[in-house]
From TrEMBL:
This is 2-isopropylmalate synthase. CDD domains: DRE_TIM_IPMS. Pathway: Amino-acid biosynthesis; L-leucine biosynthesis; L-leucine from 3-methyl-2-oxobutanoate: step 1/4. Pfam families: HCS_D2, HMGL-like, LeuA_dimer. It comes from Neoroseomonas lacus. Keywords: Amino-acid biosynthesis, Branched-chain amino acid biosynthesis, Cytoplasm, Leucine biosynthesis, Manganese, Metal-binding, Transferase. It comes from the Bacteria. GO terms for molecular function: 2-isopropylmalate synthase activity; acetyl-CoA C-acetyltransferase activity; manganese ion binding. It is an enzyme of class 2 (transferase). HAMAP family: LeuA_type1 (MF_01025). Residues 16-280 form the Pyruvate carboxyltransferase domain. The keyword Manganese applies. It catalyses: 3-methyl-2-oxobutanoate + acetyl-CoA + H2O = (2S)-2-isopropylmalate + CoA + H(+). Residues 404-526 are annotated as: Regulatory domain.
Length: 526
């Protein structure tokens, strides 16, 4: 019998559903938390990329998480991706997910319950029979609130396979429409995955009515390999994240899975709805929002992924790129001629370039971004696409900020005490600060503390170059802590101290938003 999924109807042969969990599993990794506005931007980008399901969050985790899931669901009220929210196997979690996702055109409740003997004994303190009963009760409850229900067997890959079959059978009987088998701790080998999926698909009564899904962590660097092995054994949904972010070593990376399926269609016979040319910019957007760049040698989106250094390779690529390239850089969004606009370029050309890069900005944002572009073009010999992306991402992230940096002056050098003066606007009111420090950046942060008095701990200060060269823009990440709450801010500029000040002010603004929310800390171990 063909699968007739409530959200996808009949799936075409070989079509793989891409379930993106950047906003849930990805966001759970330390330092990767995003605020509501950032999550909405990511959700938009993921939709444009072609993700089929967005796991928007863990609705019960905090009021902030609930808001994010609800806002993303409302954004996709008419059409768009399936919007899922994670829930543990209890009534409160499921009701929170049901409420938060109900505004979406295609809502999904995702329930997780551990099935390995270890997790059941130590963590859940439940017997096998208890777990089976809980699956039936909770999936039934969820089905009363949503047509699309996913059930996940946490630590599924380390569960007794006979028992896992019984659990899956119970979930299907209770109405689950997707069955997900996570390799929660990244322990499996590809051959294990093949065995698990082929056993479940061939043995469990009713298996033909549901979509099987794979969710792999990267503790042994095997997340993508395990994902492909699961697909070869019949999985039709892949859970993954942009840049492979996620708990501990991360999840299977969406871009690697999508490009493996495309490049090796000959062997895997599977397709996705991913618009591959948007991969790079989605990856960059995530890096800008979180402040974490991928490593240079990261497959598909790393700076060196298509760089050919050795003479032999360069010679081969010049003669025929396919000698050393298994996919074209353009197919994932890299541009060959990345030297673009200069200081004489006008607004129309700038707007046009933004469009090509995939940015749709409103008039006000265009004005602000254009001013920043002119400023960068004045100081930088060549303005690359990466520069434009960095400054637009930076500008868009700043809409509605209460604190704005309006002026900065720093004097520093050998044998002098570095000193900074700053001017800011707080809700439109001007405030000034002046301070000395151990270096220009330290003095700037001290001056900001004077202009806007606050007590925070600086937890991280990181600088990355957007492109190469001494005139490259610096992208700075600043992490601040106040009363146990962490926020990250980013700033980009050709001047590292200005970028640092912008990043600090960005983080402060996020802190103001956090202060307004009371978020009871919830420890999540999904
Ligand atoms: O890794 C895991 O087990 C999970 C589940 C919540 C799907 O993230
Ligand atoms: Zn996970």
């Amino acid at each position: 019998m063909a699968i007739n999924h409530p959200s996808f109807g009949e799936l075409a042969d070989g079509r793989i559903i891409i379930f993106d969990t950047t906003l849930r599993d990805g966001e759970q990794s330390p330092g990767f938390s995003m605020n509501l506005e950032e999550k909405l931007r990511m959700a938009e980008a993921l939709h444009e990329l072609g993700a089929d399901v967005l796991e928007a969050g863990f609705a019960i985790a905090s009021p902030g998480d609930f808001d994010s899931v609800q806002s993303i669901a409302k954004r996709f009220a008419k059409d768009g991706p399936v919007v899922a929210s994670l829930s543990r196997a209890n009534t409160a979690d499921i009701m929170a997910s049901a409420e938060a996702t109900k505004g979406a055109a295609r809502p999904r409740i995702h329930i997780v319950l551990a099935t390995s003997d270890l997790h059941m004994r130590v963590k859940l303190r439940m017997s096998r029979e208890d777990v089976l009963q809980r699956i039936t009760e909770t999936v039934t409850l969820a089905r009363n609130h949503a047509a699309d229900v996913e059930w996940s067997a946490e630590d599924g890959s380390r569960s007794d396979l006979e028992f896992l079959c019984r659990c899956v059978e119970a979930a299907i009987k209770a109405g689950a429409t997707t069955i997900n088998i996570p390799d929660t701790v990244g322990y499996s080998l590809p051959a294990d995955m093949g065995l698990i999926f082929s056993t479940l698909i061939n043995k469990v009564p009713g298996a033909e009515k549901v979509i099987f899904s794979t969710h792999n962590h990267n503790d042994l660097g095997l997340a993508v390999a395990n994902t492909l092995a699961a697909i070869q054994a019949g999985a039709r949904q892949v859970e993954c994240t942009i840049n492979g972010i996620g708990e501990r070593a991360g999840n299977a990376s969406l871009e690697e899975v999508a490009m493996a399926l495309r490049t090796r269609h000959d062997a895997l016979h599977a397709t996705t709805g991913i618009a591959s040319q948007r991969i790079l910019r989605t990856s960059k957007l995530l890096a800008t929002i979180t402040g974490f760049d991928v490593q240079p040698n990261k497959a598909i989106v790393g700076r060196n992924a298509f760089a050919h250094e050795s003479g032999i390779h360069q010679d081969g690529v010049l003669k025929d790129a396919s000698t050393y390239e298994i996919m074209t850089p353009e197919s994932v969004g890299w541009t060959t001629n990345s030297i673009i606009l200069g200081k004489h370029s006008g607004r129309a050309a700038f707007r046009d370039r933004l469009k090509t890069l995939g940015y749709e900005v409103g008039d006000n944002q265009l004005n602000d971004a254009f001013k920043r572009f002119k400023d960068v073009a004045d100081r930088k010999k060549v303005v690359y696409d990466e520069d434009i992306a960095a400054l637009v991402d930076d500008e868009v992230g700043r809409a509605n900020e209460r604190i704005r940096l309006t002026g900065l002056n720093v004097s520093t050098g050998m044998g002098t005490k570095p000193m900074a003066t700053v001017a800011i606007e707080v809700d439109g009111e001007r405030a000034d600060g002046m301070a000395t420090g151990d270096g220009g950046v330290d003095a700037t942060f001290a001056a900001l503390r004077q202009a806007f008095p606050h007590e925070v701990t600086l937890k991280l200060y990181a600088v990355q170059a957007v492109t190469s060269g001494t005139d490259a823009q610096a992208r700075v990440t600043v992490r601040l802590e106040e009363d146990g709450k962490l926020v990250d801010g980013q700033g980009a500029d050709t001047d590292t101290i200005v970028a640092s000040a912008r990043a600090y002010v960005h983080a402060l603004n996020k802190l103001l938003v956090k202060r307004q929310r009371t978020e009871p800390p919830v420890v999540l171990r999904a």
